[in-house]
Batch of 3 targets.
Target 1
Amino acid sequence: MALQLPVDTLHLDLVRCPLQLDDILESKYFNANTKLSLGLIDGRNIWKNDFEGSLKIIEKAAAKIPLENLWVSASCSLLHTPYDLDLEVNLPTEIKQWLAFAKQKLGEIVTLKNLSLPDNETYLSLYEENKLANLTRKRSKLIHNQNVKERIKNLKESDSHRVSNFKVRQAKQKQALNLPLFPTTTIGSFPQTKEVRAWRLKYKKGLLSLAEYNGLIAKEIETSVKFQEDIGLDVLVHGEFERNDMVEYFGEQLNGFAFSGFGWVQSYGSRCVKPPILFGDVSREKPMTVKWSSYAQSLTDKPLKGMLTGPVTILQWSFVRNDQPRETTCNQIALAIRDEVVDLEKHGLKVIQIDEPAIREGLPLRKKDWAKYLNWAVKGFKVSACGVKDETQIHTHMCYSEFNDIIASIADMDADVITIETSRSEMELLDAFVNFKYPNEIGPGVYDIHSPRVPNLDEIEQLLVKAKNVLPKEHIWVNPDCGLKTRDWPETKKALENIVNAANNLRKQETELV
């Protein structure tokens, strides 16, 4: 179909899907007069191009198409890559030599074009420089950690399974946690006010000592825990006031990650993020979240959730190394998160949430490749979650997703509780779970955190009644759609009070029915 379109030039993303070139060149509709734009420079990642490999692709195309009909380009828009590597004065030199940001990628396009021409002597030095950088990367001790590789090699099937099935775990967790019907919780983060962000900035600039900064964070956690107790939430959170970004925070504490100073890219709308650079084998040297989670738990007799970002989401929301399968990298992250989960359990956390909002967005373009991806993505989550006792309740959170296509894989994740974003769809997104007869507990969101509008009590109750009509009441949790990081405290407090009151009203109705 593409070859029959009335176009002068056809562009191919040969980074995401190199097989497209074979599809075109071998098609019966192929016309050597069609101009092809070869998307060889990765527009989604930050690694230097492999000139040697790219020239082979150009040669393959040039064997069937006149050289004057070939274009050399980026795989896609450079919107997804940072602007200029030259601005990064604090990146380690060894790592920096392997990278190319948008400005450098434009130079790579020009160099590749000229290397493909007969008279290319002027550019041969750049070719050799590129070849050496890629060779250095393959051999770097900074990247390769034998202990991590051995641990991946020794992963067992049992590492991705809980001790008992969900029904057995559910009974033990009900006894251990003693939660009411329709338990209430939040997704994890509380408002990151201007004051909280200012503390972090002052600490980074040396204007606050570590002791002063920690004292401010501790006080904020204490205030938030007391607020949650006062309004009657059942499972509390510490609020994540010490965290900058849900991926960056963990990357800063894991081996194998580096960080740019100016590597901002658009996330969605007007929101920008600065993704970590995942360049090497991933490992965890010490606990990352235990300090603040266990401190918060010490302030209350109610269960408090330990909050973690899952391995697939860390993978998806980083600039990921392209020198090994993504599955391997995912498993490395999963083992690091698993160590954190086990440590949280040891320090008295009976509820642990591992967020995985990015599982669906990682689906390959071609549907025939979905099963392989979902298999290792689900396994990665389970490796991270399955090192705990039956009594420890594992939560996960997903948002931004249509679930119908992957509902079986979500069930295979076997989280004790999944919380999802359903308020804006008036619970329609719940249909996938209902039709599938999702076996575990579920928290359909009743508060749209993307809006400053506070839902009233009646609205929340109506949503919960919809959920109660299609799900076992013993499986329903009551919670917002997502984290409350971007909201202000007044609207947050009022919305959560309404959520608690709605859950209490439903409990009262159930008691009256009995």
Note: The chain has two domains: 2-139, 170-193+223-249+289-513.
Target 2
Amino acid sequence: MTSTEFSRRRFLRSAAVTTSAIGAAAAIPSAQSQISVDTSPDLHEFDLPPLPFLHGVASGDPLPDAVVIWTRVTPDEAAFPGSGVGLPTTLHWEVAEDDGFGVVVKRGEVISDPLSDHTIHVDVQGLDPDRVYFYRFTVVTGPHEGAASPTGRAKTAPTGTVDNQRWAVASCANWESGFFSAYADMAERAWAGELDLTVFLGDYIYEYAHNEYAGRGPVRKHHPAHEILTLADYRTRYGRYRTDPALQDAHAALPWIVVWDDHEVANNNHREGAANHQPYEGEFSARRDAAMRAYYEWMPVRHTETSAKGRLYRSFTFGDLVDLTIMDLRTYRDVEFWRGGSRQPGDARTMLGTEQYDWLTDTLEQSTATWSALGNSVMFSPLHIGAVFNNPATRPIAKSLSSNILTSEVPMPEINELPLNGDQWDGYDFERRRLINTLGRLNKTPIFLTGDIHSEWCHSIHHGGEEIGCEVVCSSITAPNAAESTGVPAGSALFGAANRYLYAANPDLQHVCLDSHGYTVVDISPDTVRIDWMRVDNVLVPESPTRLAHSMVWRKDHGFIA
């Protein structure tokens, strides 16, 4: 179905699910892993909210005195995302100290435009630090005059002495693979004041065609149904995602700091192309530019600090406690080594590019915070899986983790010889070692916050024989994990065997779970970082419970503690 075929009726209705498979869900040995089911869920539709605020509200990029607030207005039924039509609409916006808007501190007007897909960004300035604010938009002109948006909750960054920050860390949400129950849990905790921020590390959308990458789904259908290529396609896909009530609630509940990975453009993209872009699909640069434009339109990012300067990498400060440095690991990277031939001694491919690396170094040098958090969309730590591959029983699990490198042309590896895949930092080892040396030289205590791999991991980071920090990897919101990619039931003993191989081959590995979905809470205090992995019981079930499944604590100048 093309964008022009995305009719009024389909725009006004969206797919949900009540699945006959729920009752057939099998019990599994490992607590809170995703339930394994053998039958596909049924697709059903539900009505969307009325116009004009179909896509909710959002906030992002919090500073001590400012935060970006976002919405999209739909002026009429023809002005669906990607349509390029609809009259400009004047909106009044308000920011208040209370959710009843009794004490309004900032207000103004803004006009939507079809050239920006009727998305609205307001960079609200002059706010107080470390303060919760509430915001809303109201239509001033047109047939929806007086209509009010949902109320959003934002929070500014703190200054001075800061004792604690609690961040939700998330990535990899595939619309067709499951329901966004993890987002619902994030929203509930945020509205209760338990979270300060969401750090989203990429793969907010997936570019694939309907049923091409659905795991045990699809539970609902992509729009457009084909692989997305054009600006209209990307806008339509974002619009589809933002009709999800749980995602809307998670955006409304607290500010997000976001970065893209590959699927916001195309699988395994790099500076000059992507694995999932073919010559018959047109110029890659045109596709990339369209994808980036739609991303800036639909995400709550500060345009003057990002797209206006042609970059997404940026940094944030949370008092004396922690700096968060967001790295863009896609736009500037060289092609991964296995696509460009065998890795040779001295291979110095770049993940960051010269300008971004210099900016990162300067940012780290200027930081005086206790912790250096690095938003990192792909696995930073070395990961070897030769033993998992060599055992025929666990080989499917190895292939699911390393499909980008384990091909028929690669000889069977010996134990510990094979890095996970060249798409991650394993393919850019020279620059990884250079970054570790920079962190060590500057005496930084890094917390790498990572997504991408659809499973839970935790690693120690070493420099000069000393443990200087850790890497925290969240599972996917819904994108297929190793269980769904292989057909091996979640909780199978094969995952236990694979885990034992992984621990033996990777001495810095502290935690791994390959068959879960969810997100991670990172609780930062002056001396410790507590890591809580939150797991969804079953992503095929709407409003499935999300539970604390595993916790670890890393202490400054000590390492992981029991």
Note: Confidence is low (pLDDT under 50) at residues 1-38.
Target 3
Amino acid sequence: MKVQDSSKATRRDRLSIDNKSCIDHPNWYRGYRARLKTRQHCGMYTFFNIDSCIEAASSQLSNFFSFMLENYVHIQEKDPTLVNRLFGCAPQDDRGRQECIGIIEVPESYSGPRLQFPLNTNSLTIMIEAFKKQQILHAYYVLEILFETKEAMKQMPNFTHIRTCPTKEITICGDLHGKLEDLLLIFSKNGLPSGYNPYVFNGDFVDRGKYSIEILMILFVSFLLFGDDLCLNRGNHEDFLMNMRYGFTKEVLSKYKIHGKKILQVLEEVFAWLPLGTIIDDEILIMHGGISESTDLNLLHHIERNKMKSVLMPPVPMDKDSGTETKKNKGHVPRGVKLSGSPSDYLTKHEWEQVIDILWSDPRGKRGCYPNTCRGGGCYFGPDVTSKFLNKNRLKLLIRSHECKPEGYEICHDGKVITVFSASNYYEEGSNRGAYIKVGFCTTLRFFQYQVTKATCLRPLHQRVNTIESSAIRILKERMVSRKTDLIRSFQLQDRTKSGKISMGQWAFSMENTLGLNLPWRTLSSHLVLTDDDGNIDYMTCFHDIHIQKPVKEAQSALIETLYRYRSDLQIIFNVIDSDHSGLISMEEFHSMWKLFCSHYNLHIGDSQVDELAERMDLNKDGSIDFNEFLKAFYVIHQLDNLSRSNTQLA
């Protein structure tokens, strides 16, 4: 009988335990990373769905403006400039350019970048270095660049055709959304635009970020210097009505208090002249959004794109003398509305829809083409629609942007559709990478990812996921409180026993139907509501830690919720009326537009309640409302701002 050495046995046992630990530890870590990634995806998905719903509300404003013209024609008599402005009938001319720029002087005290015209490559470098120091370009230079850009854009076709060659690659960038750091990082990694380093920027240069005007100046100067090798496509945010909601208008007026209005007017013209897309080597089509089953590339090549001042404004071509509808656009037409210009000054309904489709659409895995209910504009198009479109037009690939992707890009439809998104940290610090694509001569595409790294981005993954998660829950709760009355009504319909509790399934059904958000409600429930030991939901706990601040204590909750829910729509409408951007709206305009707004949206809020609220808000009794301050009075208070359950994992 052989006696076993106990010391050797102990070593073997210890080794066996260590080996098991080595095996288990990677498995545990992989599971941990997977759970974090799931939580990150859930947070991103929540952001995307709410963001898309907000954009849907923006796109649906087109219905409101049609309604306005049909039912409120005395606006045209009272303020014809407003109607003409909405339909883009105020073209600038060369004399206007001289009058505009000639009266502006750059004072000696100005310490920002000084440019020489005609521009040269040194101008671009000087401007970029100044923007890095957060210096603001003088309004004189901004307007000069805008007028020059508009004249150059007029010579461009709707689709720019460019070619690769053995000595250079073409770089394709997606949405930047005012994030100057991302653009500068791209230039740092990939080089400045030049004849040897061509770029395609695929729309959505502005809104959301703080440096939209700086991005525009860099891109426009680059275009003026290297027009054949710098392509700029229009996105759905190159639109003056979208800019009123998403921040670009506010940014310009804040940075250029004297000449901001003029800059915005000229920008409307420049945006309208932006090309609709780019085609590389007659094989790769680059457009901002996507396609539909009815997208006609030949029609889009010949459409008069400058007539589309805003995709949110539907075409209403009218005969100037008779006020009758042209044969191009049949349907109900507002009587008595006469716009300056002839019907040929406007796009037909079919042309308008074509442009909306290429700026707003998104690819999906489901076959066919169906309405983009999430955004409210454009469509969802499947792989079969993509294949048919590419085959018909003898193309091989569609590159688009328009959607934030966690890795900065995504490939779908059997490799025939690629989404590229260049704004990193789009929703929150650490939420996503940015990316750009390089296309070479007879070579495969190369993808480059990056992320602007600030102090917050250096935190561990679990901390970054917690930040994304908490922010997503915060904006979701704000949407919930704006529909509090409707949600409670839906909950109570499910609560047949009046116990104050419903099942998880009933709660999820009410949330999705009322808010119109397709979210993983069961997963999110631990962040939004309390559950008892039997798994039933105490539905009123949805609102325990959050409420809307009332500007007037006596105001009814239903009224406050309604105003909060439609605050962005109202802000756009009143910003359009406030043509001098003074921030002041007359009481008469407030009352009239609110009545029209309620009528269109079928809101059952008494006019007298809103009138009384407006009068109370007019503190100095001068007959005007500071509408921006009026809107700020409606904000959501989070009593538990740190979200006590924020550490609860979604997965």
Note: Confidence is low (pLDDT under 50) at residues 1-6, 85-93, 317-341, 641-651.
